[in-house]
Amino acid sequence: AIKTQRAIDDSLYTILSRMKELAKSLPEYSTVRAMGGVGDVLAPKLIAEIGDVRRLHSAKALIAWAGIDPPPYETGQFVGSNRKIPKKGSATLRKTGYEVMRVLKSHKATKDDVVYNYILKKEREGKDKKHARIAGLNKFLRIYYARVMAVYQ
Predict the structure, then answer these.
(1) Residue among 45, 44, 33, 140 at smallest CA distance from 90
(2) Is the pLDDT of residue 144 over 90?
(3) Which of the residues 45, 72, 89, 115 has the least number of beta carbons within 10 Å of its own beta carbon?
């Protein structure tokens, strides 16, 4: 059992090392790596999950693809505060993004603290921690899209 676990750990380490090498060769790597909450492990995962942002027409498309865009508000018996994210799209991107938000929130604010401050603002407005982080991820992906698109301009 221990040999198997070590073999798995070695394989994961090899895969992650290779992902880092490949990600570092991309023009957007340093831009993504400089964003708050994104480290050496999460940067390649984020880049791999999102892929080439140039294929998306807008930041809204990236957010929709991640499955965290709020549904439209409808009238009638529907109460706007009960809306939930659709969760259509990439579950892995949502998990990676949520991990970025967790890391961002658990460390002191960096110089790039726009998303961190946004999460704190949403918590002060009364949102619970999970909803505040999803709102922060929404903002993070908008910023991600703008910064990575600027690299390719």
Answers:
(1) 45
(2) yes
(3) 72
Two structure tokens written together for 98: 């949520």
Length of the chain: 153
SS3 call for 111: coil
Distance of CA 129 to the CA centre of its chain: 16
pLDDT score recorded for residue 112 = 75
- Tell me the residue ranges of DSSP E strands in the chain: none
How far out from the chain centre does Cα 94 lie? 6
For the record, the structure tokens of 122 come out as 């949403």
Q: How far is CA 121 from CA 52, 81, 97, 127, in A?
A: 31, 17, 19, 9
What is the per-residue pLDDT across 83-109, written as a single tens digit (0 to 9) for each?
677 778 888 999 999 999 999 888 876
**In angstroms, rounded to a whole number, what is the distance separating the alpha carbons of residues 98 and 147?**
19
DSSP 1-40: -HHHHHHHHHHHHHHHHHHHHHHHTSTTHHHHHTSTT--T
pTM: 0.84
